[in-house]
Design a protein that fits this description.
This protein is an alpha+beta fold. The protein is built from 15 helices and ten strands. Strands 1, 2, 3, 4, 5, 6, 7, 8, 9 and 10 form a ten-stranded antiparallel beta sheet that branches. Strand 6 (202-205) and strand 7 (211-220) form a beta hairpin. The protein starts with 34 loop residues before the first helix and ends in a 5-residue tail after the last helix. Bound molecules: protoporphyrin IX containing FE. Protoporphyrin IX containing FE binds at residues 52-55, 58, 94, 96, 113-115, 128-130, 135, 140, 143, 199, 314-316, 332, 335-336, 339-340, 343-344, 347.
Amino acid sequence: MRPSVVFTTEGGTPYSQPYDYQRIGSDGPLLLQDVHLIESLAHFARERIPERVVHAKGAGAHGYFEVTNAEFAKNYTMMDVLSENGRRTPITMRFSTVGGESGSADSARDPRGFAIKFRTNKGIWDLVMNNTPVFFLRDPSKFPHFIHTQKRNPQTHLKDKDLFWDYLGSNPESLYQVMRLFSDLGTPYGVTHMDGWSGHAYRWVKEDGSWVYVKLYAETMQGIRNFTNAEATEMQGVNPDFSTQDLFESIENGTYPGWTMYAQVLTPEQAQTFKYNVLDLTKEWGFDDVPKTEIGKIYLTENPSNYFAEIEQAAFSPGRLVDGWALSADPVLQSRSFSYPDAHRYRLGVNYMQIPVNTPLCPVANFERDGFMNVQGNQGSRPNYLSTLSPIQLPKLPYVDDTHQQWTGGAVRSLSQVTEIDFDWPRRFLKSLSEQDRQNLISNIVGHLGAAKSETVRTRQVALFAHVDADFGAAIAKGVGVQVMPLSFPDGPTWLNTTIASNSSTLRY
Ligand code: HEM
């Protein structure tokens, strides 16, 4: 076969010897004038960019989102992307594990990232979800602490089960997410057999400025399938890239993975009297409590032609909003809207939105100019200030009345305080499990928690499990070799009060 491209230097000049280097004589030293060798070695040494500080290991693909229920969506939101049945919007999705480095095994026990970039006619909309409806925390200030304990011990550079459980046991609002994680849901069979949840309540906004709280949920069309702990552990050795390969090959073979997207809606008035704080990221709304309604379908139909360009450089942010989709006052969501673009500027550079995978399909016009790697014309000759000589159109957006978000009532107060209601979802979850799933949950916890050396750490975590359900706690206590200690509310044991006291002083909600 005749090659279709000619080998060149970085400057495009044809060059005949990729393996060549210039030297004095046949065995002498090399020459500084050998521009080809120097540029090739210099570029090689600069290939790595910082990996994502969390969610570093991932895989992704392109596809589309198709609207199936515009009638429903239009009742609540002015989002252009949802305005017409059959409308297809191009998307890029990235799936990931959270704690491991970019070379870590796909089948590790971990939540999975489920990030979608919608290239809508009216700008980029990112939906940065996980494969779980809740999270370990509801106070953003805890996030770096939490993540540090899921990564490596600063001295040994080993994953450390004592640090892992020390954090979780002393921050009991994590309990429901911990139980989901240690069920077999924590080791999904690849990424196509799992659901995605927005987790947070966002807001849908209409042209008249009225709004409702909304959560989105993507249900897999492939059916839920999980590894058992033993299977996941084996797969980590046999094929650490199992789900990356599974996703790539299924698309390559024309079996396009799909998800049905649903919405759950609560009006501000309903939210005020809802049984849980609607902004509490550690609690689900529950489909029995708030019914879900289909709004569209997602299909992944195209593999990236270059992983680094199209997936590694993809920059997703919960703050990348479009008209009709707004943040709520959930403090974790608010903090995320800062943290992701901050990470992108560090990881990809200030002009990361000019990298083709991140660039909107519609024109961009603003006053952000210059900076490193400004590669899309820098917005040409248009003035770089708000000019009266060459005015820029300023679109009229609806006035959104946010008064309701300034509640001081029960619904949004004291996110940190752990009370009896925090055991509600762990109990509901435990009751929903089959006998087999319950046994797997117990043995998965025992296998991991049992390896924590500190008896205090094990005892504390067991007290929490036993407060969910006495038999459940007793089985774990037996497995990890500790006594069940009582946990009572409102006072709780000393360690719990310490957690509460240290948080309440700085809380606004
Ligand atoms: C990735 C911060 C909570 C889902 C990231 C990244 C940061 C971050 C800095 C790396 C971004 C990058 O380098 O491109 C935080 C903070 C959180 C938080 C500060 C809480 C205070 C959450 C929650 C979810 C989530 C609650 C899901 C509901 C994701 C996903 C990614 C990610 C899916 C990977 C996105 C991708 O594929 O590029 N997070 N995160 N995070 N986070 Fe979070």
